[in-house]
Amino acid sequence: MTLYDLVAPGLDERGDPRYRISDIRAADPLGADALLAALPGMNADADVAALTVALRTLVPDPDRAAEWSVVAALAAMRDLGILLGSLKRHGTQPVAAVPEVLPVLELLGRRTDMVPRDTVHHYTTWNPLGPRQRMYTGHPMEAHLQEAVRMAFPGLVAALDACSRLARLEPYDPGFAVALDRTAHHVQSMVDSIDFTIAHVSPEFFALTLRPYFEEIDVAGRDYLGPAAAQVPLWLVDVTLWQCDRSHSAYDEFLADSVQYSLPSWRDFHARHAGGVSAVSKLSAAVSWENVDRLPPQLAASAHALGRVLRILKTFRARHIGIARRAYSDDLRLYDEGSGGAPVDLLRSILDLTRDNETLVRRATGTRSRVRPSAGTPAA
């Protein structure tokens, strides 16, 4: 049993086949188990010839692949993908080296309704556990990083459910604070995940050993990023809390590029809420109508709940920046941008935006955060 199994809220029971985690992990449609067990050794030797043969060996017949279920197609992309990243890490464009993989990647992308290469979901959540686990290096720190992402996945799914409810409510509604409290509970898994990463994965290992495997590859003339942790979209929570109408152009551009790596249902979530009114804006408007010293009880509860979620997001981002600064410091970095395509400066901007919105909520309630007495109740 892993930490993921302890926090997963029955995802397999959802209708989306992408949540059938155990089935995807168990699937081996390419018969890749034995070959991929040898992958860390090929990478340690920088054996491009062996990697090329391995990828060519695993490429299935397109007609056979077209008959696979979504579960099998996701598992196949997972196993082809780790070879794609391995070849690129050693300076070889995989599709150029093995052209016959191109129609299969495009087919699997269409079949799964995802990009035509592996994503962070393939590399972590859908990755088998134990001796079948697919890894570039086989190092314990790589396994810990994969586990950290698995820890965050169930909480993020549940947080998006809560955010969907939140978007339909107003701050005076009792459910507004409840949805925010649930969001805060689930988003805490992101903080737990980053703390686990800090404890078990050194910046040196990530920067010098693992980061090169997450480079973009060319698929039919278009670059696609590797399975970066940035593809675990905490920014979808931002969308409903503040980003949809209180953002910055640089963050908007990052999201526009990042959303393609999400699950189909998560892309739908972004499309539904990107043009909405954020929780911060709703609360600010509601507070502005209150011309008394004390807020109504429900509005005060909503304000406190929103401030709590934003503080958790702020905590996560501050710790994330700490890791990123060490991994991309002048004496370590091999790249100017993170594996998700964003420079460290953008992480700072997102933290500042999160902090600004948290400060706005705190100041908007400020001296009026005390609860207004109910009718017939003596004032304190």
Automatic annotation (TrEMBL):
InterPro entries in alphabetical order: PrnB (IPR015029), Trp/Indoleamine_2_3_dOase-like (IPR037217)
Organism phylogeny: Bacteria, Bacillati, Actinomycetota, Actinomycetes, Kitasatosporales
Annotated protein name in UniProt = Monodechloroaminopyrrolnitrin synthase PrnB family protein
List the Gene3D superfamilies hit by this protein, alphabetically.
Answer: 1.20.58.1320, 1.20.58.480
Q: Which domain of life does the protein's organism represent? A: Bacteria
Q: Fetch the Pfam families from UniProt.
A: PrnB
